[in-house]
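[Discussion] Sanity-checking designs against the backbone

I'm trying to build intuition for which residues belong where. Below is a structure token string of 558 positions. I'd appreciate it if someone posts a full sequence so I can compare it with mine line by line.
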């Protein structure tokens, strides 16, 4: 902000010096308005200028008003001074009343002197070129004598457009493409010259009729251009956003939905920097949309009031932001779109985007992103339910361990990976039928639940261990990156976790033991997952059950 304050200060000083010089020049060389213009005609022409000022078209962060046709008409009929005065009145009124109340004063302070200087140069330099080439004005205007001067006029326009583009890129850090600017200026000024010439055709009948004809022609061209561009853009945007919503709606789980949104956002809306915040179950995760990686919490919304958090926040220039937005961003980040809070159930989503282009975002884009985020919130909420159902379908309700279905899925995944060697430990409770027959199935269930708790305690320190209830009193453990000796060691740790401490059921201690069979696959394609599981089962019964129980046997040692 300090940099832009300096630019604004220099702009006001420059404008003040020019005004003083013009005032002194007017005292030394009094200007007589010829031909004279009545107050009524001047007021009518000013109204036409304002109509174009307030009904503008935005392309690439640049506003096109098409007022150039009316200003050119005024210049050709009433002279350069009247054209400059009416144009300046239009700039002043537009600057004071065109923007939202919260940024109006800031825009005026920072941009008014720059806009004034640009406007004067845009009118005076091409008009001077026209006059120097002998271009006719006023009652003596003829089409044949104006052709070459109009070429000079257009050359002046393109030269000023290029210099303006360089200036705003260098001093205001606005990334305008000068080739795009000149292409659009060609269209705008071409239509403006055509409308001004057609308006002059009716000048002899009535100056106001001529101005009205010129205005109607300009409005016709502008509306056609605006409607065509808006229609094509709206259709294109609607299809892209609908496709993004469809991809979100088919996402089953949270990770799929987040990845889908992060991939689609750069194609849906332009931005230089962007972050997506997802808060659910009192946990907040923020993603950098460009890199798809998580970042630290941004302090963007911490200083905003509750009312600010209810609606999207839109800013078009860096000096619009105010002191609440305290982010370490490059000086050329101007536009900001922040949607602070979209909620559905326990899910809260926020997004903030910044762009180098001025006025890159509007209410329509904010509304489109808001609707997409609402869909995203509902998908996240639904994904939590899907995940819960998914987890329940793969969890044993009694022991809270994964069930055999989850074990087979994990086994297939591990054997298809490169986490070899892989080891499988299959074990069951010795004489469990005796426990059920003697103490009842309720006690048996309590024993299974306690065994599940002890297994989880043994494996909780190792992320590469996956334990599941295989069925009945049988349990299974799958270990990635595990050699034979390590597998036997883990199996023994499980055996002692069961053996060394009795199971207390209704204040009665029960001595429980388990027998374990182990198999290790050293490298891929040595054995399939099913074959390894059969060998672990063989080791359990041949080396464990038939060898006195309460022991561990590895298939390789049978």
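Best answer:
Here's mine. Compare freely.
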């Amino acid at each position: 902000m300090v940099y832009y304050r300096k630019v604004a200060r220099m702009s006001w000083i420059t404008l003040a010096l020019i005004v003083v010089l013009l005032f002194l020049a007017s005292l030394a060389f009094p200007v007589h308005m010829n031909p004279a213009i009545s107050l009524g005609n001047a007021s009518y022409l000013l109204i036409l200028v304002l109509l174009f000022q307030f009904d503008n078209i935005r392309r690439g962060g640049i506003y096109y008003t098409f007022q150039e046709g009316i200003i050119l008409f005024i210049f050709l009929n009433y002279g350069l001074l009247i054209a400059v005065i009416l144009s300046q009145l239009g700039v002043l009124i537009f600057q004071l009343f065109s923007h939202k109340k919260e940024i109006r004063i800031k825009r005026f302070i920072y941009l008014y002197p720059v806009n004034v200087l640009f406007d004067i140069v845009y009118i005076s330099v091409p008009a001077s070129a026209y006059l120097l080439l002998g271009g006719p004005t006023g009652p003596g205007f003829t089409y044949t004598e104006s052709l070459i001067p109009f070429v000079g006029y257009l050359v002046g326009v393109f030269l000023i457009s290029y210099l303006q583009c360089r200036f705003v890129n260098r001093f205001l850090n606005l990334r305008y493409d000068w080739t795009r600017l000149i292409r659009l200026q060609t269209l705008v000024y071409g239509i403006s010259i055509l409308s001004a010439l057609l308006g002059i055709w009716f000048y002899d009948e009535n100056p106001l009729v001529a101005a009205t004809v010129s205005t109607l022609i300009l409005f016709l061209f502008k509306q056609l251009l605006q409607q065509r561009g808006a229609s094509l853009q709206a259709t294109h945007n609607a299809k892209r956003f609908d496709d993004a919503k469809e991809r979100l709606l088919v996402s089953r789980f949270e990770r799929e939905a987040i990845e889908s949104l992060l991939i689609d956002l750069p194609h849906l809306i332009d931005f230089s920097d962007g972050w997506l915040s997802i808060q659910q179950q009192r946990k907040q995760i923020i993603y950098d949309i460009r890199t798809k990686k998580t970042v630290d919490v941004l302090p963007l919304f911490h200083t905003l009031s509750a009312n600010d958090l209810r609606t999207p926040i839109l800013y078009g220039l860096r000096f619009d932001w105010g002191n609440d937005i305290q982010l370490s961003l490059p000086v050329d980040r101007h536009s900001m779109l922040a949607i602070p809070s979209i909620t559905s159930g326990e899910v809260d989503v926020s997004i903030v985007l910044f762009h180098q282009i001025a006025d890159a975002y509007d209410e329509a884009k904010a509304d489109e992103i808001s609707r997409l985020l609402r869909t995203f919130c509902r998908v996240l909420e639904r994904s939590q339910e899907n995940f819960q159902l998914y987890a329940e379908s793969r969890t044993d309700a009694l022991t809270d361990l994964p069930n055999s279905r989850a074990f087979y899925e994990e086994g297939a995944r591990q054997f298809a990976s490169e986490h070899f060697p892989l080891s499988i430990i299959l074990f069951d409770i010795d004489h469990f039928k005796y426990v059920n027959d003697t103490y009842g199935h309720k006690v048996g269930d309590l024993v299974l639940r306690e065994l599940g708790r002890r297994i989880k305690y043994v494996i909780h320190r190792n992320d590469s261990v996956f334990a599941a209830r295989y069925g009945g009193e049988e349990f299974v453990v799958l270990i990635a990156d595990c050699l034979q000796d390590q597998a036997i060691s883990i199996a023994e740790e499980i055996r002692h976790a069961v053996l060394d401490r009795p199971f207390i059921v209704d204040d009665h201690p029960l001595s429980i033991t388990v027998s374990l069979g182990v198999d290790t696959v050293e490298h891929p394609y040595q054995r399939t997952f099913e074959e390894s599981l059969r060998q672990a089962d063989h080791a359990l019964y041949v080396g464990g059950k038939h060898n006195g129980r309460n022991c561990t046997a590895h298939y390789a040692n049978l």
